[in-house]
Each structure stands twice: as structure tokens, then as C-alpha cells.
What we know:
Elements: E1 5-10, E2 13-18, E3 21-30, E4 35-37, E5 41-45, E6 59-62, E7 65-72, E8 78-82, E9 86-92, H1 97-108, E10 113-126, E11 133-147, H2 155-168, H3 183-205
Parallel strand pairs: 5-11, 6-11
Antiparallel strand pairs: 1-10, 2-3, 3-9, 4-5, 6-7, 8-9, 10-11
Protein name: HK97 family phage prohead protease
GO molecular function: peptidase activity
Organism: Rhizobium tropici
Amino acid sequence: MTNIEKRSHIAAVETRATDGKRTLVGYAAVFERLADIGGWFQEQIAPGAFTDAIKGDVRALVDHDSGRVIGRTKSGTLRLQEDGTGLRVEIDVPDTTDGNDLWVLVERGDISGMSFGFCVTKETWDETGDVPTRTIQALELLEVSAVAFPAYDDTTIGVRSLEEWRSANKPQPEPKISDPAAAPVTRAAAVKARLKMDLDLKVRSTR
């Protein structure tokens, strides 16, 4: 899958321990908050972008590492909810090396961000400002992660998406008379105009 992008939300994770269960809680994404993507464009996520995405089988990872799974929606150890703020994440931290290390690092404040990997399925672009603005309206959610270095990665994919949008929305030139596809229409219009002119002359001559 070549169009995977990653986005992060800093200071978005906290620990909650109740009845012997350890849970990380936070937001992997916040709606309608503009973020600078590598200086190339700004980006925001529209409310509703995760509505269908969270229905799938999503895994929680450490630093986007697929070999360090700490939760999964299918097993109920990862819970995702789209609310008025953004994508809310709850992870029941396992009693494993990765889980225990992560819990300690979050409690110490060494890890304070959450992130998610995704593929855009619906987007719009606005180029009326100083830099283009991308609005992600729908996406495929691949994973959520607790991350040590929250960052807006994979700028090149977003730039490629912008260029594809520009190409698809480039104004098309008006067809020329020499254009074979436009010629029949032009000839038909000319014949109608000539007939109208002849009819007008005949009407005038009878007066």
C-alpha cells in the first residue's frame, strides 16, 4: 500500500488505572485544526472523516511498528470513537514488555503523543490562500500509535495528491473550430444562423 500517511497529535495521551486495568486515553486527531505539512500545504480533518474508518479492524501500535501491537478493536482492547473533538482512543495496555515500558514512559511524560496511519479516500483542496489547504473528508484508518516523536510525516504523498488534484481540475481550453469534435457543432450553428437570416430577409421583403 503506497499511499500510507501518518499524522500526530502532541500532548494527547494520559494514563488511567482502575480495577487493575491500565488504559491509555487520548486523541489521535483533532477536527478542523490547521497543521502545516512540510511547508508545502496546510491540512485539516473534517468532522465525520472517521465515521466509516473506525468500523474496521484497527490495531494499536508503538511508534507505528507493526511488530509492537498493544491493542486491537476486534479483541476489544482498543476502542475508537469519533466525537465532537476528533478521534478518541482508548487502549488497554497489556502486561507485556512493550506494554509495561509504554506505561512507564507515558507516566513519566517521555511519550506524550498519539498518531495514526491512514490512506485518504476523499479530500478537497483550496488554493485561494497563501498556501494550499487540504481538507480530509474520509479516510481508511490503518492503525493508531503511541509515539515518542509526534510529527507530520509523508509530505511527499500529500504533495502528489495536490498535483493530481490540480491536474484533474485544470481549466480546459475552449474548443477551436479546427477541432474535429467541435466542427459538427459549429457547422450546425452556422447553418441555423444562415437559415434565420434568410427567413428574416423574406419577412422583410413581404412587408
